[in-house]
Specification:
alpha+beta, three-stranded antiparallel beta sheet, single chain
Length: about 120
């Protein structure tokens, strides 16, 4: 898998996981918010209208990469999965943080009503 595909897949899985978690919490009737907006944190019923764009999360990614020479003098960078042959390849590690602003969540209409 190429590095860009790995980053894309990891990011999509995490973002979808956040959304799926809130959906499941809502279905179970649990009063909890994953990634609340500023107004939701204050208990307002504006349903996520005030989004705090400064509250991003950093996803730390670390991957072992194989760099291979390809035709026409280029290189191919892929995420290591399993073993490698070592023939005209080099393995290195890369670690970086990817800032992500998770999507605001939808809450049930009666979320802020007293029970």
């Amino acid at each position: 898998m190429e590095l860009r595909e790995f980053i894309k897949e990891v990011s999509l899985e995490i973002i979808q996981g956040v959304t799926d978690t809130q959906d499941e919490i809502n279905k179970k009737g649990i009063k909890s918010i994953v990634n609340p907006t500023s107004d939701q944190s204050l208990g307002n019923e504006t349903k996520g209208k005030i989004y705090d764009f400064g509250k991003y999360q950093k996803i730390d990614i670390e991957a072992a990469l194989i760099t291979r020479e390809v035709k026409k003098g280029g290189i191919s960078v892929q995420v290591l999965s399993g073993s490698y042959s070592g023939d005209k390849e080099s393995v290195s590690k890369v670690k970086f943080s990817l800032p992500i602003l998770f999507p605001p969540v939808n809450l049930p209409d009666d979320f802020f009503k007293e029970t």
